[in-house]
Amino acid sequence: MRGLTATLRYHFVKSAEKTLKAADNLRHTQEEQLEMLLHYGRKTSWGHRHRMSIVGGYDDFRKEIPVVAYEDIRTEVMKMVDGEKDVLWPGKVKRFAQSSGTSDGKSKYIPITDISLSINHYRGGSESVGHYLRQNPKSRIFDGKAFILGGSFANELHLNRKGVKIGDLSANLIDAINPLVNMLRVPTKRIALMEDWGAKLPALIESAANQDITNISGVPSWFLTVLQGVIKHKGATTIHDVWPNLEVFFHGGISFRPYRSQYELITDCSKMHYLETYNASEGFFAVQIEKDSNRMMLLPDAGVFYEFIPSGGDEKQAVPAWEVKKGGIYSMIITACNGLWRYQIGDVVKIEETAPLLVTIAGRTKHFINAFGEEVMVHNTDAAIEKACRETGCHICNYTVAPVFSENGRKGRHQWLIEFDVPPTNLEEFAHILDIKLQAENSDYQAKRQHDIFLDCLTVTPARLGLFDDWLRKSGKLGGQRKIPRLSNERKTLDELLKMNK
User: Fold this and answer.
1) Which of 68, 336, 407, 438 has its CA 20 to 30 A from that of 266?
2) CA-to-CA distance for 289 and 303, rounded, in angstroms?
3) Is 12 helix (H, G, I), strand (E, B) or coil?
4) Could you give the CA distance from residue 226 to residue 236 in angstroms, rounded to a whole number?
5) Are strands 213-218 and 145-148 parallel, antiparallel or unpaired?
6) Lowest pLDDT segment from 25-39, 313-327, 478-492
7) How many angstroms separate the Cα of 83 from the Cα of each of 41, 96, 106, 407?
């Protein structure tokens, strides 16, 4: 495959440059997407119910179509799973991505349409490669193989209906991919779609260890486990001792910041690049277009129409992408070519630039701590723990945080449960440093901590190795797309973990 990158580079770079031009005319591009989506929506029962036939533009759209959460459309989605056609999207939908549970504790099943595969999910992957090649003209990414982690078709519905597939988004993407792409990737589809991760992990390691891997794609926490396994399997010191041509990690799903130092320990930093993506079960939304930056450009022409609700506002204050303000914090609403109409995805983003529209992920609408008026979000805690770890020389595998409420005359505080790969030599000193770093990241937390008047210093509880994986396994969520709830305004998750922390 030597020289294949030179052959394919033009196609990918040209596509990325076309997207940049579309982003320069954001309003026109987004209005075109809305018009296209409405064309399909008018053919559905949802469209009939909400009078899409009279919607002629954004003002009509926001007036006639309600903002919804998953609970509002669960009935419609289950009709689609049962084979009913023309519900949220024209025709029958035969693929669904099982995603994390909602407030009622049930899993979500996100429709995956044929058009969403082609113009959104696969398009997003192509854009990631194109922008990487723009930034790195000497890349030889296609001269070796891609190592792509995927989930499985294990699901809570246990359906055997012919033609309907329900599982992780990544499993659907691998299953439906053009067979020619399989020549450029590992592992085999059989291994990639294995359900038992106890058997899958060693199979992944064995299948990839002797390949010429040039790029890897997946969730940082899970891929770290795989890379460490490959290094141990080969008796190597770093992953570049095994894969000398490895050059880039396309990552997403969770913040990379808490894991960067661990990747630096097992890679040759002079060879390694990182490119962040904003890829969810609901769609592929954004990709990093600058070197050494976590700012990502929203893809303006990939079958998604974006709206944003200002922090602290309600759905009546939603604005389109061309009206957001630089520096603003917004919860994101999407209308997409998978039948999600004005859907609250649950993510909170910060607008870094408006032309092109660059965002960073600030957290989840339900994952924050504001138990004492501190308004701490995930990007605050990710940044704080990254800096604390660098200063103390320790490394983490995972963490979660919840409030400890005032009792017996003692002030409230934050309790951190942290699984360390390399623990600090002095846990109390680490907690103090982490507290200082968090104050530097969040002025509201700093104000509540001033002179210990309102809040006590945070405390850190060490988690045994493997605790978070055990909790995910018990919850039925262990897999390539695994996510730990970082922050919670109540203690349910933390208390469950503490009971298992023996």
Assistant:
1) 438
2) 19
3) helix
4) 14
5) parallel
6) 478-492
7) 18, 12, 20, 53
Tell me the per-residue pLDDT of 423-433, one tens digit each, with 9 for 90 and over.
999 999 999 99
In b/e form, how buried is each residue of 243-278, taking b as 16+ CB within 10 angstroms? beebbbbbbbbbbbbbbebbbeebbeeeebbbbbbb
Q: 7-16, pLDDT tens digit by residue?
A: 999 999 999 9
Q: Of 19-23, 132-136, 149-153, 212-216, where does mean pLDDT reach its minimum?
A: 149-153
Q: Which two tokens stand for residue 241?
A: 């001792």
CA distance 11 to 33: 23
Residue identified by tokens 């070197």 is: 291
**Other CB atoms within 10 A of residue 295 CB:** 16
- The model's pLDDT over 208-262, given as tens digits with 9 standing for 90+, comes to 999 999 999 998 877 888 999 999 999 999 999 999 999 999 998 777 887 888 8
H/E element, 169: helix 169-176
CB within 8 A of 367, min separation 6: which ones?
377, 378, 485, 486, 487, 488
Amino acid sitting at position 206: E
Cβ atoms within 10 Å of 347's Cβ, excluding its own: 21
- Token look-up 């399989």 returns 182
Report yes or no: 265 and 395 within 8 Å, Cβ to Cβ: yes
User: What is the rounded distance in angstroms from the CA atom of residue 130 to the CA atom of residue 10?
Assistant: 9
List the helix and strand counts (H, then E) for the chain.
18, 20
* 304-310 and 108-112 strand pairing: unpaired
Q: Which H, E and C letters describe 454-490, residue by residue? A: CECCCEEEEECCCHHHHHHHHCCCCCCCCCCCCECCC
Torsion of CA 275, 197, 231, 218, to 10 degrees: 0
Task: Give the max Cα distance, the chain.
Answer: 70
* H/E run at residue 223: helix 220-234
Whose tokens are 């002179």? That residue is 451
Q: Tell me: cis bond preceding 356? Omega within 30 of 0 counts.
A: yes
Closest to 167 measured CA to CA, from 470, 475, 480: 480
